[in-house]
Protein 1
Amino acid sequence: NSILALSNKEKTALVENYNLCNNSVTVLSNGISISSLVELSEKSFVSKLSILYLGRIDANKGLKEILAALEILVAENLDFEFCVCGTGPQKDSFLVECRRILGDKLKYKGIVFGNLKQQVLKDSHLFLLPSYFEGLPISLLETMANYVVPIVTPVGSMPDVVKSGKNGFLVNSVDDIVNVIFEMSKNRDRLVQIADNAAQYVRENYSMDEYVNRINKLYYEN
């Protein structure tokens, strides 16, 4: 009776491409648990800049662009570390290139969950995902909710969440990625403000409680 879409953008695409009735498609965005999140007071924003990649290690996630950006950051002597969490078809080749570029600046954690995942989120400042296509990644919501500033491409439903310059950054090139990272490294006060905006926005709009309430209402109405 009802088809679920992650955003208004996806709803429009479904209606137009599959000749569906507009009323048959309901927008229901992903949600996350907000019961055990890192708090702002627990994070240090004066420590070495920590950039996080969290998710499937796949070429379509923008791995080529990430490596190109890392090359520039190292060449410009930025003091940072790059933390990679996850696995996928390009894991080995990606890590080989990361180690070549970064040396001991690379921290590979594997698949993270529980206390280890919470510690990674606590230590991270920026979340990098220059993906070629996406829906609405749980990793985006989780990182933002834990005061990690997203640097992502304007694909899928990510622009519905990330308001560039306010609670994160939308980027279209390697140069964009590098410029944002340098800016956030130099201006830690702005980094804190955007991180706070990111966390408050996701906690208020993408909680699992709200998700459950909306899907229950959908079932009851049908």
Note: The radius of gyration is 18 Å.
Protein 2
Amino acid sequence: MKEFFYRPENAWVGDVIPYYEDGEFKLFYLHGWRENYREGLDRGWYLIGTKDFVNYREDGASKIEGGTGHILKVDNVYHMFYCVFPDGKQFACHAVSKDLRTWELIPEDTFGPDGEIYELADWRDPFVFWNEEEGQYGMLLAAMAKGPSNRKGCVARLTSRDLKKWTDREPLYAPNIHVGAHECPDLFRIGDWWYLVYSNYTDRFATFYRMSRSLNGPWITPKVDTFDGRAFYAAKSVSDGRKRYLFGWNPTKNDDLFGWNPPKAKGKDYNTWDWGGNLVVHEIIQRPDGTLAVKVPDSVNAAFAVDQPLHWESIAGTWTSPAPDEYACESPYAFTARLTEEDLPDRCKLSLEIRFSEHTQGTGVMLRTGVGLDEAYYVTLEPQRHRVTFRGPIMQSEDGGKTFPYEVELERPIELLPDRSHLLQLFIDGSICEIYINGEAAMSTRMYDIERGKLGLFVSQGDAIFKCVKIETVGCR
């Protein structure tokens, strides 16, 4: 069965370069074959088209062999900016096209850093925009600023009036936070706010954003400065004129590309994340205070619309049903659970609302669980710590304490208030699991080692009511 979250046959989706025109999202992406780990760069950019993030048209290779970049249109000519890595060096490149398919390379426009403001080692992922205030084009690049320490990852800034000759400027953003370059920079404006998006793989491995009233800064770090967790990377955005969407990839754990897999680990769940995977799209939402959130795109949510029957049995504790389609449990000092009689479908959407009391320690869902409750994937709301966590089966066993120097595998910060309904939406597609909380937070992950099992609801030391629990599958595509 072809995967719901897009990937090409016998290959993987790397960094996505989104462009929107004529009612369609035209998504260039780095095509990861994996037989040669150079992030698919030897095979270059591929193109797919979609109007709904559910159905995709494959247009194939673009004949551009290079790394991440940007597309813009000026006077009916498409300009592609991308990067290449000859002999360990990095350069920004330029190509043009009339139709987004046939590209003419302009070798004389290739350039690297001059070594005065920026280090020579990092110079990639160009993003180009028109700066209305200055009356010229700006280019952002993943770079390293000159400095005494290794914490000099930055977003480089250049300017041009003709898209051919570029002048170095002081970095747009250089906070000395990351040891690595700020990859895949992206810039957009919503209302009075400018947003800078970038990804980084040192200290924290995620796609970040900063916000400012001006392109000249200062760039504010919001309280929650990421869109998703470890399993969503290199995300870039584009707007259709009404909504803005963020395109990243959920990495696999198949190929041990970095050579860090535990040598005696059973299965794949505790392998390291690879480069590239399946395409994941989040819709960006602007809150009243200017901060950003993400939700599932409406078209993805609507694709799962075929109700599946649910029959329940209590496994631990006492459960009541105060109203139709409501399940309640009061368990202030213990763990309680109930399971479906049916296994979860391999591809489905799970949605439910959870309301909990003030002193509840944990509540949520178990995915692909058995009656023993240990062989399961746990998605847990932890109100006392204002986070949502993901734990796999090894964490329910003694081996988890031997293996990990940390409490959970994945977590996302979110304000979880008692006596209010909290919406959980989970989209499962084979090993892929995309989790959305309250239409404002996302957590991507993978589930490899347990392929079948039931849905479970649980409360750990607290009281909770579960409402509108639904499992839906995809109709005809």
Note: The two ends are 12 Å apart (CA to CA).
